[in-house]
Design a protein that fits this description.
Blueprint lengths: L5 H13 L4 E3 L20 H10 L4 E3 L3 H4 L17 H5 L3 H16 L3 E5 L3 H13 L5 E5 L19 H6 L2 H16 L3 E2 H13 L4 E10 L9 E2 L5 E8 L1
Parallel strand pairs: 1-2, 3-4
Antiparallel strand pairs: 5-7, 6-8
Helix pairs in contact: 5-6, 8-9
Length: about 240
Amino acid sequence: MGALHEGHLSLVQEARANNDIVIASIFVNPTQFGVGEDLDKYPRQLEQDSLVLEELGVDHLFAPFADDMYGPNHVSYIEPRGFDDIAEGKSRPGHFAGVATIVTKLFNIIQPTRAYFGQKDAAQCCLIQRVVEDLNMDLEICIMDTIREADGLAMSSRNAYLTAEERAVAPIVYKSLCAARDLYTERKAGLSASGLQQTVSSLLKSEPLVSEVQYVSVDSRTTMRPIGTVGEEGAVISLACKVG
């Protein structure tokens, strides 16, 4: 959606290394923002982003206006069943329909051979893979590793919202996930999801600036549905919390 950081640029570099033509899209998609979310204040720096993408060898930049993507008579949306029922979906109703719709529209317009996404948005990655398979789209979805700051905080355009004090403690999110990972590595199989959730939640709550833990979820890597026990196939642990 723009305000590019090294995480985005790593996707561009991977695409540039493995494709003849690279097209980047920048679009702050209104349909994936809920009531009271940050649509109006989301960072926008199209001119700066355009220069960075040009330097990285991007052949074309697709940066439409909202009216181009959602005309006055627009009524068609992709409604992915079940995604409003997962932890993130419950906290952001309608978000995944907005993501599925805009990604489908972009794929239809650009007709890519491959599309690149970051693992940081795990549920979105799962959703996009599901949409491509369910709708028989002829393209490959490439999921790339999360790019982090030196202290472990995942790079995000929204990190700009953090005060200096909040930024200093924000890596507690990564530390809590690492604690769960380490617990899983020790046990490897038959580990209860509730035990992993407790490990993450306890560490988050140990930081005084964490004012609310909204959810900690342990889900299937392929469906993002909650699971009770984590086996050798692993799981995705996701969370949302408020700092400050």
